Amino acid sequence: MTIEKKFKIKDPGTFWSLQTIDQLGEFSLSTDEVTEVTDTYLDTRKRRLLAKGYSCCKRELGKKARIILKKVDTDDDVSHQPKEWRVKLKKDTHDPADWPDSKVRTRVIKTIPEKKLQPIFVLRHTRITRSISKGNQVIAQANLDGVSLTVNGKERQFKTLKLKVTDPEQEKQFKALISTLQSNWQLKPEPLSNFERALEMERGKP
Hints:
The protein is an alpha+beta fold. It has one domain: Hypothetical Protein Pfu-838710-001, CATH 2.40.320. It is built from 5 helices and 11 strands; from the N terminus they run E-H-E-E-E-H-E-E-E-H-E-E-E-H-E-H. Strands 1, 2, 3, 4, 5, 6, 7, 8, 9, 10 and 11 form an 11-stranded antiparallel sheet that branches. Strand 8 and strand 9 form a beta hairpin. The longest helix has 14 residues, at 171-184.
């Protein structure tokens, strides 16, 4: 089970500090690893997938691409875990019929039979990844994301911090890490996925 916490970052100074600090209380941070990620969200012209409660994303990381299908979660709990299915693409295509045989392909075709998918949002991330440790034990991985997208003809940006721990035995230390972070910076939980955030921006919400 993966435990995650996601926070919104509005202060550029906080975002810079989280990239550059080496120590946070009793926790140490590794050097950063920077990657560029492009998420192209796909749906029909009338957004039939969204109407059925799904988001569908083609994620490009370097030369690799995959389709990520998720149930859109409306729970306000920042640690929620949406249902998710993934498949690696062998060729660049938006047509589910051309995707590899998988749960993603089957579910999309069943949900919107004979419908064409097209891009509705393109989110470009600059992702900074750092490991957070206590002593010799890695407690969590931190992803700092600077995200940009064009909504209603305007360039929009937002920043987030996602922390995740894959070892449930580290949950106590993970909670201590969260407490230390929030005592240094008044970070507020981000209950929305990036896709849901883009939808809010499209509706004119800040």
